[in-house]
């Protein structure tokens, strides 16, 4: 032990600023552990922004995949994007995005289904995969001081910016980064079969990966004399894009009323910019430019002046290859889109760390010490972009809509916030228990706080209220919900609300005329709006569903939750195209229309 201590001290005291890198790496690694611990602690409160929305869709996707209903979804059945306008209660997951590769990691979920398993899988995949492939890539480039350079890469990797990426609601594009590193390593080793296989895996993560592949092909053509790799990347990306955009997605959408969603977010966002509906966010531009400049500057300060066109190669890697994702990030991009940008930035840093000229002189240690403030500038930028680890409902739990406070960040008093929301937590857990008590082979409609849905969507037949509220086997209402996704009150729609009216529900079997009328005037809220479930709405729903002779009985009720049960089960139509590769049966119809 003493020898090891002496060895470490000797290296930290060597001239050249080596201690800077190891010191920063230790700080960032400690923060990484703290953040993940806090993340899981907050997730367990049932109040965070990480337990609803996209993660619920992913949760059901994995559940159906391991439960003999692969690629089917019943969630997101509402007017808007995604599986909107679907004629049936179910749709094929591929109608939204072409995601297949992530299901290769479904074994942990099959063993232990749940929200924690989903998050743990995507976090572990990145936390293990990034260091491994960065190690292999850096070893190939062969820097003079390997461990010193590797520690610098890991210090950037474990910055808060990376943590914010890998905890962003388990979205499928979060699997792209490690696969991109594997693709680049196959290129460096000139392994054609491996390069082709990994490229196909990357394309099947998400259709936006094809846009990255096109940029990456251009980048390889720029600094590589080997024609196979840029040509293979470009050919695979072009073929996949054409097939998905002009054949597969139109087939998936044959059973839908609307088909405006195209299979690449960048195309949608580009159209919004040209139409004036969306614009470039200058704050994001400055943020990512600052991050990129800081990481490249750190690499050059630590390694010395780049040799042999290394700086041009690094700039091509970080600007040309992920150019489409730079754009998506600047135009209302979600927290998952910058994954290719960050990944290529790390590869560029590896190139610069490996190409510095050997230098002598007293200024070298000083120059490397200058990397220290830049490291913490990257850390500060990461904190700025870190998703809110919020108690989403806030500390004010009045029934008033305007009284619901916005998010409370991780640096706020965690204990104080949870203590003040103990009643909401108890109500949420009551609601989760009520839904989970319903057998998995029964259908459910839920009208609850939005932050609870991620805990119980591991079932195949489940919808948000008001979709199929009068046909599902069970209707679960959280009577004191403050942040639901549907407002029953007849209200004037905000001018900036993008969701269309819910008149498309076409509820024809309801015996009470007033209730459907209110439904048609209600608001399906977006992710930045919340609606309470009022006592009046609960009373009206109770009257409409469980009046004498009605279709439902009250199955259970307490101070927090009301559960209705249908007397006679309704058989939901399930098109074959919504299951697995059943969409192939629709292909003849598509080709007859085309030809």
Largest sheet: 5 strands, mixed
Cα Rg: 26 Å
Note the total helix count.
Answer: 23
Helix content: 40-55%
The secondary structure category is: mainly alpha
How many β strands by DSSP?
9
First CA to last CA: what distance? 77 Å
Strand order of the largest sheet: 4-3-5-9-8
- List low-pLDDT spans: 78-84, 258-263, 393-416, 491-513
Sheet-strand content, in percent, reads 5-15%
Any idea what the shape is? globular
Mean pLDDT comes to: 79
Walk me through the structure.
- With 595 residues, this protein is mainly alpha-helical.
- Helix content is 51%, strand content 5%.
- The chain has helices spanning 2-12, 18-43, 54-65, 107-111, 115-141, 146-157, 160-166, 176-188, 192-203, 209-223, 228-252, 265-275, 282-303, 310-320, 323-330, 339-353, 363-369, 371-385, 414-420, 422-436, 514-521, 535-545, 587-594; strands at residues 72-73, 91-92, 444-447, 462-464, 474-478, 486-487, 523-524, 552-557, 561-566.
- The strands form 3 sheets. The chain has a 5-stranded mixed β-sheet with strand order 4-3-5-9-8, sandwiched between helices. A two-stranded antiparallel ribbon has the order 1-2. Strands 6-7 form a two-stranded antiparallel sheet.
- A hairpin with a 3-residue loop joins strand 8 (552-557) and strand 9.
- The radius of gyration is 26 Å and the shape is globular.
- The model is unreliable at 78-84, 258-263, 393-416 and 491-513 (pLDDT under 50).
């Amino acid at each position: 032990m003493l020898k090891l201590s002496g060895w470490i001290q000797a290296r930290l005291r060597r001239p050249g600023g080596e201690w800077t890198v190891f010191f920063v790496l230790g700080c960032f690694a400690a923060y990484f552990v703290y953040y993940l611990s806090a993340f899981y602690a907050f997730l367990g409160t049932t109040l965070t922004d990480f337990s609803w929305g996209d993660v619920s869709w992913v949760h059901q996707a994995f559940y159906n995949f391991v439960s003999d209903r692969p690629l089917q979804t019943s969630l997101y059945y509402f007017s808007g994007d995604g599986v909107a306008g679907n004629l049936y209660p179910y749709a094929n997951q591929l109608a939204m995005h072409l995601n297949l590769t992530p299901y290769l990691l479904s074994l942990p979920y099959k063993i232990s289904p749940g929200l924690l398993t989903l998050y743990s899988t995507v976090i572990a995949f990145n936390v293990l995969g990034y260091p491994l492939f960065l190690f292999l890539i850096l070893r190939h480039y062969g820097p003079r001081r390997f461990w010193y350079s590797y520690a610098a890469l890991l210090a950037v990797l474990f910055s808060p910016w990376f943590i914010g990426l890998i905890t962003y609601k388990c979205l499928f594009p979060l699997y792209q980064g490690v696969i991109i590193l594997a693709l680049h390593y196959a290129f460096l080793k000139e392994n054609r079969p491996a390069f082709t296989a990994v490229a196909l895996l990357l394309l099947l993560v998400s259709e936006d990966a094809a846009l990255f592949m096109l940029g990456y092909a251009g980048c390889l053509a720029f600094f590589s004399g080997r024609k196979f790799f840029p040509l293979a990347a470009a050919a695979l990306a072009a073929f996949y894009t054409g097939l998905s955009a002009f054949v597969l997605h139109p087939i998936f959408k044959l059973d839908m009323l609307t088909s405006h969603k195209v299979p690449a977010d960048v195309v949608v966002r580009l159209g919004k910019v040209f139409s004036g509906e969306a614009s470039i966010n200058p704050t994001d531009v400055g943020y990512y430019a600052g991050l990129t400049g800081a990481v490249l500057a750190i690499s050059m300060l630590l390694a010395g002046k780049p040799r042999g066109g290394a700086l041009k190669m690094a700039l091509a890697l970080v600007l040309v290859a992920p150019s489409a994702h730079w754009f998506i990030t600047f135009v209302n991009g979600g927290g998952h889109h910058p994954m290719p940008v960050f990944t290529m930035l790390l590869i560029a840093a590896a190139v610069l760390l490996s190409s510095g000229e050997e230098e002598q002189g007293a200024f070298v240690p000083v120059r490397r010490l200058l990397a220290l403030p830049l490291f913490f500038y990257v850390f500060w930028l990461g904190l700025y972009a870190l998703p809110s680890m919020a108690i989403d409902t806030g500390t004010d739990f009045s029934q008033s809509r305007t009284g619901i406070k916005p998010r409370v960040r991780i640096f706020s008093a965690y204990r104080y916030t949870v203590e003040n929301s103990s009643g909401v937590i108890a109500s949420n857990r009551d609601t989760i228990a009520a839904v989970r008590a319903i057998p998995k082979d029964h259908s459910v409609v839920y009208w609850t706080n939005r932050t609870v849905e991620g805990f119980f969507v591991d079932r195949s037949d489940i919808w948000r209220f008001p979709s199929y509220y009068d046909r599902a086997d069970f209707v679960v209402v959280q009577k004191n919900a403050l942040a639901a996704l549907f407002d029953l009150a007849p209200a004037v729609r905000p001018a900036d609300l993008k969701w269309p009216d819910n008149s498309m529900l076409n509820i024809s079997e309801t015996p009470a005329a007033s209730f459907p009328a209110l439904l048609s005037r209600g608001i399906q809220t977006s992710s930045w709006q919340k609606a309470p479930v009022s006592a009046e709405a609960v009373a009206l729903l109770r009257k409409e569903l469980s009046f004498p002779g009605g279709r439902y009985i009250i199955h259970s009720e307490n101070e927090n939750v009301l559960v209705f049960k249908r007397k006679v089960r309704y058989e939901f139509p399930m098109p074959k195209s919504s299951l697995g590769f059943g969409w192939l049966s629709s292909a003849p119809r598509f080709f007859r229309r085309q030809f």
